[in-house]
Write a structure and sequence with these properties.
- This protein has helices at residues 16-32, 51-67, 85-94, 99-103, 106-114, 121-124, 126-135, 149-165, 209-217, 234-246, 249-260, 266-292, 295-324; strands at residues 3-9, 34-40, 76-79, 141-142, 175-176.
- With 329 residues, the protein is mainly alpha-helical.
- The strands form two sheets. It has a three-stranded parallel sheet with strand order 1-2-3, with helices on both faces. Strands 4-5 form a two-stranded parallel sheet.
- The two termini are 37 Å apart.
- It binds tryptophan.
Length: 329
């Protein structure tokens, strides 16, 4: 069985794109693999959150993933900063990471360009910490989006370098976990492209009814079909795609027919879409809030996850220390 590790950013709430994309796949993934899911709170310090913000965002992220179906009995779900072995492995890996190669990563170069007044060493060594996250469980696979591919490549490089340096075959080279066909792309509400956090075109699982209605009513459309059976333009196709995820088939068919006969009224379609999104999201939102307010449950989950993660992490570190030559007299 493969060991699969997923790192979750500690900031940012889940939107429908995450829900139908990554989260759905995580739930399937945890049935078939030995999965570790963790919230990357050390990494978030590169941007200096206040202590309250740090704590609250970790709590929200954990509540959202539990509400959407990550199962603490099937996987190890933990908070990065609960595992002290990670920073120790990070220190050791840093000795074999070259400043030059770290400076050349795209994400670091972007930071240097966009925030020249805060180029901290944590940013430079971000890929090393990420490699420590991955290698601490000797993970075989890591699900990553496009923006994290280079970081995963660095993790492979550090794994290979360690193995080579100490003439061992200790760390597997972590490969991307490929969802293949299963990766549903959810469009945003701004006419083109995917739903995403930075694009600001998303509907969040914790959005209230009013917010959802407002966002959907503002979605980009066009001036409408002029000939029967004309091709559906992208912004409208996107609304149909969203509808097919949350509405009854008969509803989708109804509006498709209206479109084909040029009788569609986008206002009506959006109203229906908003109500169906609300119907879909409400039970999830309620569950998130319930879990978010249940400190005892969250604490139990985090403790159980940390115990599982520590078991694997301490074994790795024991081996690594031995390999490097930190030995008892
Ligand atoms: N850098 C990842 C992100 O921004 C989060 C992350 C941290 C991660 N450590 C990881 C992802 C290890 C995968 C594996 O999304």
């Amino acid at each position: 069985m493969d060991t699969v590790l997923s790192g979750i950013r500690s900031t940012g709430n889940l939107h429908l794109g995450n829900y139908f994309g990554a989260v759905k796949n995580f739930i399937k993934m945890q049935e078939e693999n030995n999965c570790y899911f963790f919230i990357a709170d050390y990494h978030s310090l590169t941007t200096y959150p206040t202590p309250e913000d740090l704590h609250n965002s970790v709590k929200s992220v954990l509540a959202e993933y539990l509400a959407t179906g990550l199962d603490p009995n099937k996987s190890a779900i933990y908070v990065q900063s609960d595992i002290r072995e990670i920073p120790e492995l990070y220190l050791l890996l840093n000795m074999n990471a070259y400043v030059g190669e770290l400076e050349r990563t795209t994400s670091f170069k972007d930071k240097v360009r966009t925030q020249p007044n805060n180029v901290n060493a944590g940013l430079l060594t971000y890929p090393v910490l990420m490699a420590a996250d991955i290698l601490i469980h000797r993970s075989h696979k890591v699900p990553v989006g496009k923006d994290q591919e280079q970081n995963l490549e660095m993790a492979r490089k550090f794994a290979k370098r360690f193995n080579h340096m100490y003439k061992v075959d200790y760390f597997p080279e972590p490969q991307p976990y490929n969802f293949g066909e299963d990766l549903v792309k959810v469009p945003g509400l701004d006419g083109s492209g995917k739903m995403g956090k930075t694009a600001g075109n998303g509907i969040y699982l914790i959005d209230d009814d009013k917010t959802i209605r407002k966002k959907v009513m503002r979605a980009v459309t066009d001036s409408g079909p002029t000939k029967p059976d004309s091709e559906v333009a992208e912004p409208i196709q996107n609304l149909f795609t969203l509808m097919s995820l949350v509405s009854e088939t008969s509803t989708v068919d109804f509006f498709k027919e209206k479109y084909a006969s040029c009788e569609i009224r986008y206002g009506d379609m959006k109203k229906q879409l908003a109500e169906d999104i609300i119907k879909f999201v409400t039970p999830i939102r309620e569950k998130i809030i319930e879990i978010r307010n249940n400190n005892k449950y969250l604490r139990d989950v985090a403790e159980l996850g940390a115990e599982k993660a520590r078991q694997s992490a301490s074994k790795t570190l024991k081996d690594v220390r031995e390999i490097i030559g930190f030995r008892k007299f």
